[in-house]
Automatic annotation (TrEMBL):
Gene3D superfamilies: Nucleic acid-binding proteins, Recombination protein O, C-terminal domain. NCBIfam families: reco (TIGR00613). This is DNA repair protein RecO. The keyword Heme does not apply. It comes from the Bacteria. Involved in DNA repair and RecF pathway recombination. The keyword DNA damage applies. Residues 1-68 form the DNA replication/recombination mediator RecO N-terminal domain. It comes from Streptomyces xantholiticus. InterPro entries: ARFGAP/RecO (IPR037278), DNA_rep/recomb_RecO_N (IPR022572), NA-bd_OB-fold (IPR012340), RecO (IPR003717), RecO_C (IPR042242). Belongs to the RecO family. Keywords: DNA damage, DNA recombination, DNA repair. HAMAP family: RecO.
Length: 248
């Protein structure tokens, strides 16, 4: 029997029995972890209020064995709030839907429990912090998070050089199957011709050029979001359920 301590973000919760919950977290040191939190659904439980989605917490786990992820679910025995990002997210519909899509994306990209995914964890913490503060439009924060999540998981799209032959950009065609923008010689069936402004926006979101992203017109933001959604769907092999509720 072992005690483990880690900090993480609560991705989702599930009811268990009359008063318990199964908490899914993305942790810094252990990747995605599912644990049982006992008694957290009781009205007087302060412990339960700290384990809501979007919360950044310091958690202690109790596991039977030397590994945190084993045959049975560990118990979540202590929790301290690091940052209650949910307070700045759940009161605004646009932020809430964008944040929910971010949580689902993080869970989908960490499908093996117990495997550290530090870059994905840091991306999620930074994305939720930015979203809760309202520093940028929620859909821009979401698209930036999706693009960077794809990048750290090995699916970085190209927005300048041809994704197939490397021809220096700008290149006018875009193909999700090819990996981003492609030249005329590499054009494949199903390629689209997005506006230069939409491609510039996505490049800015991927690299963190927020002045350029914030100044983009709404029609180009919608166009860029469509490309991001299609690209994510291709690599995840199925879409995000929460993405359909995001305001465009």
């Amino acid at each position: 029997m072992s005690l483990f301590r880690d900090d993480g973000v609560v991705l989702r919760t599930q009811k268990l029995g009359e008063a318990d919950r199964i908490i899914t977290l993305l942790t810094r040191g252990h990747g995605r972890v599912r644990a049982v939190a006992r008694g957290v659904r009781r009205t007087k439980s302060k412990f339960g209020a700290r384990l809501e989605p979007f919360s950044h917490v310091d958690v202690q786990f109790f596991a039977r064995g030397s590994e945190l992820v084993g045959r049975g679910l560990p118990l979540c025995t202590q929790s301290e709030t690091i940052a209650p990002y949910g307070g700045g997210i759940v009161t605004d519909y646009a932020r809430y839907t964008a944040g929910t899509a971010m949580l689902e994306t993080a869970e989908r990209f960490t499908d093996h429990e117990g495997e550290p995914a530090v870059q994905q964890y840091l991306l999620l913490v930074g994305g939720l912090r930015t979203l809760s503060r309202g520093e940028h439009a929620p859909n821009l924060v979401l698209d930036a998070f999706l693009l960077r999540s794809l990048a750290v998981n090995g699916y970085a799209p190209s927005f300048d050089d041809c994704a197939r032959c490397g021809l220096p950009g700008p290149n006018r065609f875009f193909s999700v199957a090819a990996g981003g923008v492609i030249c005329g010689d590499c054009r494949v069936p199903g390629s689209v011709v997005p506006s230069a402004e939409a491609i510039g926006l996505l490049s800015a979101l991927l690299t963190g050029d927020w002045p350029t992203a914030d100044a983009c017109q709404a029609r180009h933001v919608r166009e860029g979001s469509g490309l991001v959604s299609a690209y994510l769907h291709w690599h995840l092999e199925r879409g995000l359920r929460s993405l359909r509720y995001v305001e465009k």
